[in-house]
Amino acid sequence: MIINKLKKFIGVEINDLDITKILDIGIINEISELLSEFSVVVIRDQNITNDQHIKFSEFFGNLEQTKVGTDGSGSKLIILRNFDEDGNIVSPNDRQRLNNLANKEWHSDSSFKKIPSKLSILSAKMIPSNGGDTEFLSMRAAYNSLPENLKLNIEDKVCWHDYSHGRLKIDPNLVTSEEKKALPPVKQKLVLNNKKYGKSLYLGAHCSKIDGMTENESQNLLKEIYEFVDNKSFVYSHIWKPYDLIMWDNRSVLHRATPIKGKIEKRLMVRTTIAGETSTLND
Ligand SMILES: [Fe+2]
């Protein structure tokens, strides 16, 4: 495979692979290794069907079932779009648009699950001509930038992650009672450890509080950490081309969508999510 690095800490691009014609498991192992080391892998020119997307994804592990209340619920695909069944762009207060707003906050997919996801694989079907980029933030680079005393302070901290937390700030009715019931808050370690490539921070929009601290103490410590996380040099910003396929390691990057600029044009993405194998509490 011909591999180009995209940014110092994060991201590689593969230009000469057809994911529908993988005959050698060595290729899958190579991609897994790239994900471990560089967190984000961009594979260009993959005009694939949903079945081909699922088949490729299953090389990397079991797929999560799409949760209640999300487009694609009960299947292995998440459909991310800003238009309705008739092809009309949905109104700004539509649930789909509000959920898209939530995706504009830094987050890790499924960090609200007891065993959160390992990878996400996102395929671009329709992209707007201006804006709508996806940004990825290396939480390993962020961890490495922390002063030693802060690293020591957070080493064994555990955070609560709650699906409702970020969404309720956008709209108090955005999370349904069915979703709340299906997704109770869970605990995750704040510092994760990839044995080969080192430690990373595990935070994002679903993280509501540090366990065992008062609300104030927790907010102050999170604020202190985020001052180091908020650093452009750790971010790879992806400008989508049609049929790009992006894979990322949810345990070492955060990601977010950026707004579409100018006239709102249709955007359609399809995602699979590879289930994690272990709780972060064992990390
Ligand atoms: Fe996401």
User: What is the approximate shape?
Assistant: globular
- Total helices: the number is 8
Number of domains: 1
Q: Roughly what percent helix?
A: 25-40%
The CATH architecture can be named as 4-Layer Sandwich
* Cα-based radius of gyration, to the nearest Å: 18 Å
> How would you name the CATH homologous superfamily?
Clavaminate synthase-like
What do you see in this structure?
By secondary structure, the chain is of the alpha+beta class. It has one domain: 4-Layer Sandwich (Double-stranded beta-helix). Helices cover 25% and strands 24% of the residues. A seven-stranded mixed β-sheet has the order 1-2-3-13-5-15-4, covered by helices on one side. The longest helix has 15 residues. Fe (ii) ion binds next to loops.
Question: In short, what is this structure?
Answer:
By secondary structure, the protein is an alpha+beta fold.
Strand and helix map with partners:
Blueprint: E1 3-5, E2 12-14, H1 25-38, E3 40-43, H2 50-57, E4 78-81, H3 95-102, E5 119-126, E6 134-138, H4 139-144, H5 148-154, E7 158-161, H6 163-170, H7 177-182, E8 186-189, E9 191-194, E10 198-201, E11 207-210, H8 215-229, E12 235-238, E13 245-249, E14 253-257, E15 268-274
Parallel strand pairs: 2-3
Antiparallel strand pairs: 1-2, 3-13, 4-15, 5-13, 5-15, 6-12, 6-14, 7-8, 7-11, 9-10
Bound molecules: fe (ii) ion (FE2).
Fe (ii) ion (FE2) binds at residues 103, 107, 109, 255.
